[in-house]
Structures are given as structure tokens and as C-alpha cells.
Amino acid sequence: MGKRKKIYSCGLEAALAVIGGKWKFLILWTLANGGPVRFGDLRRAVAGISEKMLIQELKEMQLDGIVARKDYRQVPPRVEYSLSGFGVELAEATKPLCAWGTKHINRIGALPTQMAA
Question: What value does the mean pLDDT take over residues 25-40?
Fold first, then answer.
């Protein structure tokens, strides 16, 4: 695990510390549905993410024990990312949330966006 030393008030807070933000959840979901994925393929699958952000998020997810990185040490470089056992368990836990979002996607999309005050 990473160097995160914090006492959480509930399990949801702890889970969000690991997959919080926009990109980590999408990376998790992509890896959960695609097996080992090369970096370039992962970048194409997570639409809109920059290379820098993908590298940063993958490093953090590795430190948290969610993602495994396999470097084949060859030329040209070949690196694959996959979920660890811990990551697979987390991906399974997110399935009901994704199902809820899919069920209500049209309603959520129709909601007015709120501007920051």
C-alpha cells in the first residue's frame, strides 16, 4: 500500500481516497473490463486523459496496491497494466454503482449543472 496514514470516519471515505477523482475510477473500470492493457491502449480507452495524468494516476494506483505493472524489458519498451487482487475486489464493489448510473443516465444527464458559488 501507499504511504497514506489517515484515520477514516467510514469505509466510503477510505474507498474514495483510493479511487477519488475523475480518472482513477475510469482507469479502474477499463482495466477491470480488459485484462492486461498496454499503456497506449489504456490511454486511448480512457478518453480525454493526458499522458502525464495517466502516468501520475497509474503510479498512485500502483502505490495503493490497486494496479500491477509488468515491464517486459525489451526494445521497443513494452509495459502492461492490470488489476491486482485488491484492485479486482475494488472493481467488483463498484459494479452496483455503475449499474445505478447506467439505469439513471438519462435523468442524470438532464439535471442542470450547478455553478460554484
Answer: 92
**Predicted local confidence at residue 77, as pLDDT:** 86
Tell me the per-residue pLDDT of 44-102, one tens digit each, with 9 for 90 and over.
999 999 999 999 999 999 999 999 999 999 888 889 999 999 999 999 999 998 899 88
Spelled out in words, what is the top-level CATH class assigned to the domain 11-98?
mainly alpha
Measured on CA atoms in the order 61, 82, 10, 117, is the torsion positive or negative? positive
| Residue whose C-alpha is closest to residue 23's, from 62, 64, 56 | 56
Residue carrying C-alpha cell 505493472: 69
Note if the pTM is more than 0.90.
no
- What's the pLDDT score for residue 115? 46
User: What is the enclosing helix (H) or strand (E) of 37?
Assistant: strand 37-38
Cα Rg, the chain, nearest whole Å: 16
Q: Which of 31, 48, 53, 51 has the alpha carbon at shortest distance from 40?
A: 51
User: How far apart (Å, rounded) are the C-alpha atoms in residues 28 and 55?
Assistant: 14
d(CA 49, CA 55): 10
